[in-house]
Amino acid sequence: MKIVRYKRESEIIWGVLTGETIETLAAAPFDGIGPGGATVSLGEVELLAPVEPPNVLAIGLNYRQHAAESNMKIPERPLLFIKANTSVIGPGASVVLPKIAPDEVDYEAELCIVIGKEAKNVSEAKALEHVLGYTCSNDVSARDCQLRLDAQWARAKSFDTFCPLGPWIETDLNPDNVEILSRVNGQVMQESNTSDMIFGCAKLISFLSRCLTLLPGTVIMTGTPEGIGFARKPPVFLKPGDTVEIEIAGIGVLKNPVVLET
After folding, report:
1. Residue 71: count of CB within 10 angstroms of its CB
2. Positive or negative: CA dihedral 28, 32, 35, 41
3. Could you read off the pLDDT of 93-136 as tens digits, one per residue?
4. Residues 12, 15, 21, CA angle at the centre, nearest 5°?
5. Is 1-48 in CATH node 2.30.30.370?
6. Angle at alpha carbon of residue 182, lines to 181 and 186, rounded to 5°
7. Among 69, 132, 169, 183, which is least packed, fewest CB within 10 Å?
8. Model pTM greater than 0.85?
9. Domain with CATH 2.30.30.370 in the chain
10. Which is the CATH superfamily of the domain at 49-260?
C-alpha cells in the first residue's frame, strides 16, 4: 500500500495510491486506514512530504562501504544525530543552497522508517510492529559546516529544505534487502543495497526506543551507502540547476531540483 499526502486549498489530505488513482482517507493513517470515499487522479495533485514528523532521527555510518570510504571504523552501536523537522520538504520541492554555506552541499540517499504507533523500550522482535511504512529520503548535508566549521553536525544537516522525503510511504517492503541509489542529473552516484547496513531496521527502532519515545510519524533515516560527493576524487557538490533523484526498489523515486537561496 502506498500512502500519500497532498494539499487541496488549505486542507491537508491523506490518501492511498493505486496506480494513478488516489482514494482519500478519512483521517491520518496512524490509527488505522479509514477510506474517505472520494478519489482523485495523481496527476491532478501536488504531493507533499508523506509525513510531517515530530522528530527526524538519523543514523551515521550505517553502511559498511560508506564507513570504508569515509576512513572510519565500523561503529559498535548506532550513531544518532537529529535533523530539524523544519528541514523537511516533499517530492518536487527545491533543495535550497544556503547563502552562508552554498559551496559544499552534498546528497545522501537513505531509506526512511516511518513510525506508525508509539514505541518505547521495544524489543527487536517487536520493533517492526511499530512501523507504518518506509519512504525515500535525501540527507542533504553542508560538508564545510559538518567537517570544518562546527564541532557537531546539527547545523550542517538542518538547513531549511535539507530533508526531502517521498514520494509516498510504502507499507509492504522488506527494508533490509532493497536496492538503493542516487542520481545527480541522471548520473548514478550511489548504488547499493540495504543489506549492507550495519544495523538493520528492527535494531535501530529498538535501540532508539530505549533512549527516547518514538511518536507516530517519527522518521528514522537509516544511513547512506558509499558514493557520496565529498568522498569522491575530485569531490562532487550540488550546484544550482542540478536535479537529485533518490530511488529505492519497491518504493519509487524522490526527485528534487537544486536552487540557490535568493
Report:
1. 7
2. positive
3. 999 999 999 999 999 999 999 999 999 999 999 999 999 999 99
4. 125
5. yes
6. 120
7. 69
8. yes
9. 1-48
10. Fumarylacetoacetase-like, C-terminal domain (3.90.850.10)
Between the CA atoms of 134, 141, 164 and 191, what dihedral angle is there, to the nearest 10 degrees? -50
Q: Please list the residues that pair with 134 across neighbouring strands.
A: 113, 170
Contact by Cβ (8 Å): 182, 246: yes
Which cell goes with 25? 482517507
176 Cβ contact partners less than 8 Å away, ≥ 6 residues apart: 194, 195, 197, 200, 201
Three cell numbers, residue 74 = 565500523
Q: What is d(CA 144, CA 101) in angstroms, rounded to the nearest whole number?
A: 7
**Contacts with 249 (C-beta within 8 Å, 6 or more apart), sequence order:** 178, 179, 180
Q: Coil, strand or helix: which one is 248? A: strand
CA distance 175 to 203: 12
Locate CATH 3.90.850.10 in the chain: 49-260
Which residues contact residue 100 at a Cβ distance below 8 angstroms, ignoring those fewer than 6 apart? none
- Tell me how far apart the terminal alpha carbons of the chain are, to the nearest angstrom: 39
